[in-house]
């Protein structure tokens, strides 16, 4: 098993190899499709996300990458007229099964959104929000959780003296790291990131990318990104989606040097997208 | 369009807008100036010795010894008036009957005016009504009476081609040569000594009960009644309104039934208030028997129905205006939809919801028609809290209407009516101001 406090463990060559080496993927989809009404946005995707690794989903706009990501914690439930087919498994449990508790699922699968979306509350209350939902903690435990989460998100030093300030008074990059800390505070196993740096300037982006590198090994991270350099920098595995189809999936290093599919190569070299 | 004509067009638009704003401001001033100036007359006026006597005897206010001294002084000043009256009555006995008849009628009128001005004449029986036991408490009213005593109104029909003209004839002329003749100059010159007007600031107008159907005292029962009615309406309307708004904005699927519901709510907001009043009577009192007759409870429920659509719409808009990202953030952290609404959505929508609530509060406080049949009476005592379940109450809007139209002596108590109008306008103004302040405060807190 992977030790949580050893983020440097990187034994994997390929997803198949990962499975063989005992790294059970606890997030997997098989023949998964997602429909907005009649429009099939994700088409029969089969994909295993290796545990404690960073998987990037790339592809041109409208290729269904965000939809696939948001299907994992069922955020698409909010959209009227949507439905799914195929299976999406989390620890062997069907996510779209009738007996699944969405609240528990979302507690175990954290999410960071495209635009920083802290609540209009104090920094402390933002981080404590998720914890308060799930456990009744006393003040000391809550404070410890807030501190740990902020430290993990690399924000503690910047905000430790102003925890009671409104979270919206932080800069955009700080807000996004706050959102990551908020997601980490409920101890998720998987962290979904939906283009987390698209609204940030290059410096803040670099800071978030460093953070992703620090979190690798502790959480299974699935990140959707527009930016191929970013995928190359932060991810261990990359999935390329095009028009809802999974075109190619493999180790990032190989994908970016020797893509086996023509379309992947075309996209990466900027011929379309 | 060339540059010149475009500029001209722009300027003319600006001109029209400025004109419109000036016109609006002027009409607002025209409306508010009399409300303020005459409404203040209920609080600040020149009170006579009768006012101080009344305050002492009815409300136990003032220094008894000082007032006794004052009564002695004004009685001394009034004595010649009564002496002249009795001398004239003696003189009447000796007149021939036809002359006597004419004087008798006039004397009766003069005596009644004197009573209204100075209180009961000496030697008369104790009057039953409070207004007959005291003279004029307000100097402005006393002067009106003086005017009517000094001049009698007559109609001049000498010009047959036009309508009759009103002319004022000094009474002194008709009493020339009698022993009553000196009464008129005496009254004119000495009324101040008989009533001793002093400027008073009668702030207790707000907290005094009314006496003898608003002839004296204040408007506390009306203020309290308005307070109860508004509070009751809020107690009914706020929970229902917010829950309905949450349902409509968050949980209702976009079906045909929900659209129908929305149309109904909008329609309900446009129903005339008198219809709500009649409905309240028919439903809450005659069907549900909330109370055997009019009561604050029935009135509050009716007012609640009236403001419910406003609260629902305002809250729904406020909830919808909350960024979608807040909801997503809460849900992604594992909040159940209800928890998400309670912990994120409602707090974020609070400024908008509060604004809607306070504006409806102003509306509920000021509505007349819904409470005519369900809650309001023209005269009443301040209610205890538990009495609101079964008792009707006076209330500011209804009593303004009542004093203006149905009171037996509308002219005598104009100042009370204006005082009520001012109080109500200030109340609604304050509520709206509170709405603006609370909204600004919460928004600022949320913006960080």
Distance between the termini of chain A: 39 Å
Report how far apart the termini of chain B are: 48 Å
Helical content band of chain B: 55-70%
> How much is the average pLDDT of chain A?
85
Biggest chain contact: A-B, 31 and 24 residues
In angstroms, what is the radius of gyration of chain A? 18 Å
For the largest sheet of chain A, list the strands in their spatial order: 6-7-8-3-9-10
The gyration radius over C-alpha positions of chain B equals: 31 Å
Low-confidence stretches of chain A: 1-22
Poorly predicted regions of chain B = none
Overview of this structure, please?
The complex is a heterodimer of chains A (273) and B (448). Chain A is α/β, with parallel strands linked by helices and 273 residues long. Chain A has helices spanning 15-20, 65-72, 102-108, 123-134, 139-152, 156-159, 172-184, 202-215, 228-234, 252-257, 262-268; strands at 27-36, 39-49, 54-58, 82-90, 93-94, 109-112, 190-194, 220-224, 237-242, 245-251. A 6-stranded mixed beta sheet of chain A has the order 6-7-8-3-9-10, with helices on both faces. In chain A, strand 1 (27-36) and strand 2 (39-49) form a beta hairpin. In chain A, helix 4 (123-134) packs parallel to helix 7 and helix 7 (172-184) packs parallel to helix 8 (202-215). The longest helix of chain A has 14 residues, at 139-152. Chain B is mainly alpha-helical and 448 residues long. Chain B has helices spanning 3-40, 49-59, 64-93, 97-118, 130-133, 139-150, 171-174, 183-195, 220-251, 256-270, 273-287, 296-321, 324-332, 337-366, 369-372, 396-405, 414-447; strands spanning 44-47, 151-156, 165-170, 198-201, 210-211, 216-217. A two-stranded antiparallel sheet of chain B has the order 1-4. In chain B, a hairpin with a 4-residue loop joins strand 5 and strand 6 (216-217). The longest helix of chain B is centred in the N-terminal third of the chain and has 38 residues, at 3-40. The two termini of chain B are 48 Å apart. The mean pLDDT of chain B is 90. Chain A binds chain B through residues 73, 75, 78, 80, 103-107, 110-111, 113, 115, 117-121, 129-130, 133-134, 165-169, 179, 182-183, 186, and chain B through 253-254, 323, 325-336, 339, 343-344, 347-348, 445-448.
């Amino acid at each position: 098993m992977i030790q949580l406090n050893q983020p440097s463990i990187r034994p994997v060559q390929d997803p198949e190899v990962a499975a063989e080496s005992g790294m059970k993927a606890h997030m997997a989809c098989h023949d998964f499709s997602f429909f907005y009404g009649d429009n099939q946005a994700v088409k029969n995707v089969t994909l295993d996300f290796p545990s404690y690794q960073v998987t990037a989903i790339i592809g041109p706009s409208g290729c269904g990458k965000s939809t696939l990501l948001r299907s994992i914690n069922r955020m698409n439930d909010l959209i009227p007229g949507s439905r799914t087919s195929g299976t999406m498994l989390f620890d062997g449990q069907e996510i779209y099964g009738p007996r699944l508790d969405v609240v528990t699922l979302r507690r175990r699968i954290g999410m960071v959104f495209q635009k920083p979306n802290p609540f209009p509350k104090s920094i402390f209350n933002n981080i404590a929000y998720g914890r308060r939902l799930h456990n009744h903690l006393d003040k000391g435990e809550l404070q410890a959780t807030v501190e740990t989460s902020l430290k993990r998100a690399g924000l503690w030093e910047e905000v430790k003296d102003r925890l009671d300030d409104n979270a919206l008074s932080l800069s955009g990059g700080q807000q996004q790291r706050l959102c990551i800390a908020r997601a980490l505070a409920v101890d998720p196993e998987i962290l979904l990131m939906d283009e987390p740096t698209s609204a940030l300037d290059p410096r803040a982006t670099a800071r978030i990318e460093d953070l992703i590198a620090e979190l690798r090994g502790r959480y299974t991270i699935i990140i959707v990104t527009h930016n191929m350099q970013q995928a190359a920098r932060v991810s261990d595995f990359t999935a390329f989606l095009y028009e809802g189809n999974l075109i190619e999936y493999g180790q990032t290093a190989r994908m970016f040097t020797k893509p086996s599919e023509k379309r992947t190569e075309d996209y990466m070299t900027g011929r379309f997208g | 369009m060339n540059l010149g004509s475009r500029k001209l067009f722009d300027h003319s638009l600006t001109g029209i807008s400025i004109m419109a704003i000036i016109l609006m401001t002027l009409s607002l001033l025209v409306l508010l100036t009399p409300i303020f100036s005459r409404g203040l007359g209920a609080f600040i006026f020149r009170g006579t010795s009768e006012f101080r006597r009344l305050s002492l005897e009815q409300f136990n206010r003032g220094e008894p010894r000082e007032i006794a001294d004052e009564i002695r002084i004004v009685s001394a000043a009034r004595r010649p008036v009564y002496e002249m009256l009795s001398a004239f009555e003696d003189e009447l006995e000796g007149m021939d009957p036809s002359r006597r008849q004419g004087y008798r009628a006039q004397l009766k009128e003069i005596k009644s005016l004197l009573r209204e001005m100075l209180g009961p004449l000496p030697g008369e029986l104790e009057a039953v009504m409070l207004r007959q036991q005291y003279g004029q408490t307000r100097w402005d009213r006393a002067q009106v009476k003086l005017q009517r005593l000094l001049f009698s109104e007559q109609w001049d029909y000498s010009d047959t081609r036009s309508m009759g003209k009103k002319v004022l004839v000094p009474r002194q002329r008709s009493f020339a040569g009698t022993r009553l003749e000196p009464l008129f100059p005496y009254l004119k010159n000495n009324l101040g000594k008989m009533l001793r007007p002093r400027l008073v600031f009668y702030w207790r107008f707000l907290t005094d009960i009314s006496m003898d159907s608003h002839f004296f005292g204040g408007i506390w029962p009306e203020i309290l009644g308005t307070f109860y009615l508004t509070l009751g309406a809020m107690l009914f309307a706020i929970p229902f309104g917010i829950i309905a708004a949450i349902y409509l904005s968050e949980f209702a699927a976009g079906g045909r039934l929900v659209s129908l519901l929305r149309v109904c709510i909008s329609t309900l907001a446009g129903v005339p208030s008198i219809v709500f009043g009649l409905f309240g009577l028919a439903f809450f009192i005659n069907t549900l028997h909330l109370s055997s007759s009019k009561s604050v409870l029935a009135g509050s429920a009716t007012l609640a129905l009236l403001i419910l659509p406003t609260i629902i719409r305002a809250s729904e808009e406020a909830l919808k205006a909350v960024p979608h990202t807040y909801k997503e953030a809460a849900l992604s952290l594992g909040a159940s939809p209800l928890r998400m609404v309670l912990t994120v959505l409602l707090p974020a929508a609070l400024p908008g919801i509060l604004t809607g609530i306070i504006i409806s509060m102003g509306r509920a406080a000021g509505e007349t028609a819904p409470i005519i049949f369900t809650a309001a009476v023209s005269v009443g005592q301040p209610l205890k809290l538990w009495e609101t379940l079964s008792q009707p109450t006076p209330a500011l809007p209804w009593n303004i209407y009542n004093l203006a139209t149905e009171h037996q002596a509308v002219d005598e108590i104009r100042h009370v009516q204006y005082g009520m109008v001012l109080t109500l306008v200030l109340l609604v103004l304050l509520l709206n101001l509170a709405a603006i302040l609370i909204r600004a405060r919460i928004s600022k807190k949320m913006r960080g």
